[in-house]
Write a structure and sequence with these properties.
Elements: H1 4-19, H2 23-29, E1 33-39, E2 42-50, H3 52-60, H4 62-76, E3 94-99, H5 108-119
Parallel strand pairs: 2-3
Antiparallel strand pairs: 1-2
Helix pairs in contact: 1-2, 1-4
């Protein structure tokens, strides 16, 4: 579950990308959600839930993925601490990207079927 700190981390990350003129990367992650991954009292990573279109781009572009991971680590440096208030080794932390789940709305299947019929099958989603 995302909390205020996760939102601050996300906002700062997008700001860093924009400041570095990584506008495409910022555009891909602005609608993401960040969550710190933990086991007990220890943080071991950060999960970035991305909209489907952004996730496809991140999965197919290793350079872009590397930029996102590096910049997220930079933003998190010094802000994550263990239960003894010691800084966490950010370089050793896991960064996960996954598809952001979509909220279910009434008649969602029918709406998607209509969208599919109107656009046709012009693209292959994944190889």
């Amino acid at each position: 579950m995302t909390d205020e700190f996760d939102n601050k981390l996300h906002r700062t990350w997008v700001e860093l990308l924009l400041s570095g003129n990584f506008n495409e990367a910022a555009k891909l992650v602005v609608n993401a959600e960040l969550t710190r991954l933990s086991s007990g009292f220890e943080y071991y990573g950060i999960c970035c839930d991305l909209p489907a279109a952004s996730m496809i781009r991140v999965q197919t572009d290793d350079e872009l993925r590397g930029q996102l991971e590096k910049s997220l680590r930079l933003v998190a440096t010094g802000h994550l601490r263990d239960q003894n208030d010691e800084p966490i080794d950010i370089d050793g932390m896991r960064i996960e990207f996954r598809i952001k789940l979509v909220n279910v709305e009434p008649d969602w299947k029918e709406k998607l079927e209509q969208s599919i019929k109107s656009t046709g099958d012009k693209k292959k989603l994944l190889d």
